[in-house]
Amino acid sequence: MLVQMADTVLKRLLTRLKQLRDAHGLTQEQFAELSGISYKYYQAVEAGRKSNLRLSTLQRLASAYGIEVWQLLSPALPKTKAPRQRPPRSRQSSR
């Protein structure tokens, strides 16, 4: 499901993503890794070059901070948990 966002909502989301990332002292690359989104894609999101985001992407962004999607757009900066560490990828045998 793609979510088409109005300009004001998109601007609020982009501002909030940067605020949260800065509050946790993360680079775009570090946060992308934690949220399970490619660095290039996250970079484009935060720069405003991606205005049609999947609900699953919004969920990943929020989940990385331990918050709900709606809190990404709340008027006040939400209280977040330290970004969760992604579990290591399981390595499958090549046999």
Q: What is shown here, in short?
A:
This protein is mainly α and 95 residues long.
What does this entry look like structurally?
The protein has 95 residues and is mainly alpha-helical. It has a single domain, classed as 434 Repressor (Amino-terminal Domain), CATH 1.10.260.40. It is built from four helices and two strands. The protein has a two-stranded antiparallel ribbon with strand order 1-2. Helix 2 packs across helix 3. The protein is globular. The chain starts with a strand and ends in a 31-residue tail after the last helix.
Features:
95 residues, mainly alpha, 434 Repressor (Amino-terminal Domain), two-stranded antiparallel ribbon, 4 helices, 2 strands, disordered C terminus
Instruction: Kindly report the oligomeric state of this protein.
Output: single chain
Question: Strand order within the widest sheet?
Answer: 1-2
Our estimate of the beta-strand percent is 5-15%
CATH superfamily caption = lambda repressor-like DNA-binding domains
Could you tell me the number of beta strands? Answer: 2
Q: What is the overall silhouette?
A: globular
Within the CATH hierarchy, at the fold level, what is the topology? 434 Repressor (Amino-terminal Domain)
In helices, the fraction of residues equals 40-55%
Secondary-structure class: mainly alpha
Our Rg estimate from Cα atoms comes to 14 Å
Helical segment count: 4
Indicate how many domains the architecture comprises: 1
Largest beta-sheet characterization: 2 strands, antiparallel
Spell the H/E element sequence: EHHHEH
Measured between the Cα atoms of the first and last residue, the distance is 37 Å
